[in-house]
Design brief:
Two copies of one chain form a homodimer. Chain A has about 270 residues and is an alpha+beta fold. Chain A is built from five helices and 15 strands. A five-stranded antiparallel sheet of chain A has the order 12-1-2-13-14, with helices on one face. The first copy, chain A, has a five-stranded antiparallel sheet with strand order 5-6-9-10-11. In chain A, strands 3-4 form a two-stranded antiparallel ribbon. At the A-B interface, strand 5, helix 3, helix 4, strand 13 and strand 14 of A face strand 5, helix 3, helix 4, strand 13 and strand 14 of B.
């Protein structure tokens, strides 16, 4: 499996991916799931992928030269000349569909789902930053101020902290920290997600990314974050009063006056309802 | 969906379940997912269920009178006379198989998976407490000191805090708090899990449960826990240093000397590998 997060803030974009792939439990490998496409001063785009590796690698290969004809203008669009990230996402969707046309039937015959999902974000000169999630059918949705992040792969373990912390007005550093905490929770609870991580942080209107780093178990910041987060989460947990059943000295008893609707069944003859 | 947790500690057992069921998004209802079976002084058993509601309700109905013949002794076992929780779990497994024999083919024809999973734990006079997870095939696994908890349903959101906090030697109150925090994270991130909650806490060698409570949005302890946990998690997050890219004043820079292996693609002609 995989875990990738992409966040769109007012200040920029954060992309974080793990690098573990597995075909069953006995075939575990390390593959990069992040691609950066860049023409300095003109466009920056990052692509994160999850799902079947043969599909996502094919999509990435094709994306380089994929074209889509614009119905209105007749123009031939690529990710390199598209005037908007929306058009670039259309080109990516077309690449996904192309792989489906080529491999879909044979995969189905082999009992393999056509399973791929991608996060694609960036900025093209002339418009603001945009972030898309692209599905197996080549269709896509866009992040908005209300929902400033997308996740693909093993998304559930690391979702609670994102839901509690992320807003579009966070500074880039804080959102990066939040993505790393979310990844840490996922690494801790799911073996199919593994180090090293790839992190790219893009500052708005820069049209180039100068913050691109590979984080392995020796990275001092990530080491510090993992150990401190574990300790402080535990301290936060310990600081909350334990439940007291029958009031006790607590001002917040667990028991309410209302009796539980759960009926204890005490004989084999008893009716459940 | 559903979220249920059961924890086996040295001091006792904790069972927590939500009460939301849904068939699609527009048919949401409230059903109890916890059953308590009890002969005071002789046995206490709790059953939590997730999956297809028609299956789990049938299993619960059947379990009351289900029998299994013991191959060695010829004895007829029920949950009411079984001398061990292992045998009681066999009776539960047999009830699951009975429902499969009755409904499995018709469900398959309708395109519905035979999907049910259950947590079943308790104590029978003459042995220690035991906790089992029972699968759709009626087979089961048992919790041990190394893995003192099981989850069913929407398990992933609430798993990180369990992995960080739970050990078999925790006091009952602390494990109860941990289960409630895990449930809170799940409630916050997944709409298909909902209040009220049912909570049962069993003290070892009591053979009866006197701590059985229904927790709704008015429960003062759960209200306090939800608001404090949110605040303190945020404070823990804020207390961790933000990442600094190029060292800065930080003793823990995010950047290592090692360059990232991610190659920026800058032209359509560029080879990916």
């Amino acid at each position: 499996m995989t875990y990738c997060i992409a966040i769109k803030l007012d200040a920029g974009l954060v992309f974080l991916s793990d690098s573990r792939t597995n075909a069953g439990l006995d075939q575990i490998n390390s593959f990069r799931k992040m691609m950066i496409y860049e023409k300095t001063g003109d466009r920056f785009m990052a692509l994160l992928s999850a799902g079947n590796l043969s599909i996502s690698q094919s999509v990435r290969e094709l994306l380089q030269t994929m074209t889509v004809r614009d119905d209105a203008t007749g123009e031939v669009l690529t990710i390199w000349n598209a005037k908007s990230m929306f058009d670039a996402a259309r080109v990516l969707g077309a690449a996904v569909r192309h792989v489906y046309d080529r491999d879909g039937v044979a995969l189905k015959r082999a009992g393999v789902d056509f399973n791929v999902s991608m996060l694609f974000g960036g900025q093209i000169q002339g418009e603001g930053m945009r972030l898309f999630q692209v599905y197996s059918a080549g269709n896509f949705i866009e992040a908005t101020a209300e929902t400033p992040y997308f996740q693909i792969g093993e998304a559930k373990y690391g979702k609670p902290v994102l839901d509690r912390v992320l807003t579009a007005d966070l500074p880039l550093e804080e959102a990066t920290k939040c993505a790393l905490v979310s990844m840490d929770s996922t690494l801790k609870s799911n073996l199919s997600v593994g180090l090293p991580l790839d992190l790219a942080v893009y500052e708005v209107d820069r049209f180039s990314c100068n913050k691109l780093v590979c984080i392995d178990e020796h990275n001092p910041y990530f080491q510090m974050l993992r150990s401190n987060w574990g300790e402080r989460l535990r301290a936060a947990f310990d600081s909350i009063e334990d439940p007291q059943w029958f009031g006790g000295n607590s001002t917040v008893p667990l028991v309410m006056d209302k009796p539980s609707p759960i009926k204890k069944i005490t004989t084999p003859e008893e009716k459940l309802v």
